[in-house]
Design brief:
Its main location: nucleus. The protein is 38% helix and 14% strand. By secondary structure, it is α/β, with parallel strands linked by helices. The radius of gyration is 30 Å and the shape is elongated.
Length: 353
């Protein structure tokens, strides 16, 4: 070989080796979420989250907080979503006339002050309140705030100062719920997801209360790293609770009765992070749980098809990956060794186990 061409050939080989190295699949360590990432979903309000708002009436309203959007809570007012995005869950916010939000602080110290007042000499004859409905209406039309109206009512109540602190607090709470515009963002955890849906449509979740759902998870010892079989006929309430408890560690095999993945319409209410579902939630339809079941012809043909161009291979990569994941999920199902089964559907358990 001519010595003059050797450096050029070596350079070409080196470039070729670099290209091959780039094409080789590299090992990537599994993602391990930090404690801060695990807590973020239930501590900080993030853009795009589905959030429960507790209203003055005591009811809960589900809203989606998108940046730049206006959130309406009916007669209780409206506010800009940006004003609470990035803020923690839990505080109660009062909606001011200009649309701004103020945190409502509970007068705990005042409620603990001892008082010798009693209600024994108070008679509810309807004459203790001097402020009439027309007076309150006039105050509203004049632009008085809710707190100003409440203050006027208390000043016009002849028996208010004679009442006990407990009774005064009850009156104040009742008037605040009537005249103030406020809300409390609640954490999107298992308790509130179950509570909201039980109050809204108990039949849809087969009357599954929050305490019952919690007992299901506790009695089956659901914990990170476990392998669980789930049959969810309540819109994703059950499988979402299991995934929340796992925190991204372990696997959940969801058995459903359709060829395509189930809708699980309640799952978005949990606001689960991608790492809590990716490679953790695995779905399998009932037919595939039978050992005699075979791959449909279109799947088998896809796996055996030979593509001649890179473009065709790239287009088919995702489709093949989904089929391979399905085969792997089915194999894991037959391997068994589930830590616990979870069933909440219109089925007879003895026929399934």
């Amino acid at each position: 070989m001519d010595e003059s061409t050797r450096p050029e050939n070596d350079a070409h080989a080196e470039r070729h080796g670099d290209e091959q190295a780039r094409k080789r699949p590299r090992y990537t360590a599994p993602f391990v979420p930090t404690n801060a990432q695990l807590r973020e979903r239930t501590t900080i309000i993030l853009p795009g989250m589905n959030v429960y708002l507790r209203l003055p009436s005591g009811m809960m309203k589900l809203v989606t907080l998108e940046k730049g959007s206006i959130i309406s809570i009916g007669k209780f007012g409206s506010f800009e979503a940006d004003r609470i995005i990035g803020k923690p869950f839990g505080p109660t916010y009062e909606i001011k006339p200009d649309g701004s939000l103020d945190i409502m602080h509970q007068a705990v110290a005042e409620a603990l002050v001892e008082s010798e007042a009693t209600n024994e000499n108070i008679f509810d004859d309807g004459e203790s309140q001097s402020l009439t409905y027309e007076d309150i209406k006039a105050l509203k039309e004049a632009g008085a705030t809710g707190r100003e109206i409440i203050q006027k009512q208390l000043e016009g109540n002849k028996s208010y100062e004679m009442r006990t602190v407990y009774s005064q607090t009850k009156i104040m709470k009742r008037k605040e719920s009537k005249h103030l515009k406020y809300f409390t963002p609640l954490t999107p955890d298992m308790f509130h997801v179950a509570l909201y849906n039980f109050d809204r449509n108990p039949d849809k979740i087969r009357n599954m209360r929050a305490d019952s759902l919690s007992q299901c998870l506790s009695f089956s010892h659901v914990q990170p790293g476990g392998k669980y079989l789930v049959i969810d006929g309540i819109g994703g309430l059950l499988v979402g609770a299991v995934l929340e408890r796992l925190g991204g560690f372990g696997s959940v095999h969801l058995i459903h009765d359709s060829d395509s993945p189930p809708a699980l319409e309640l799952m978005p209410q949990y606001n689960l992070m991608p790492f809590q579902t990716h490679n953790v939630l695995k779905t399998l339809h009932w037919a595939a749980t039978e050992k005699r079941w075979t791959l449909p012809s279109h799947m088998s043909e896809e796996l055996s098809r030979v593509y001649t161009s890179d473009r065709e291979r790239n287009r088919a990569r995702k489709k093949r990956a989904n089929i391979e994941d399905f085969i792997a999920t089915r194999q894991q199902f037959f391997e068994g060794e589930f830590d616990a089964p979870h069933l909440q559907a219109n089925m007879v358990p003895s026929l399934l186990l």
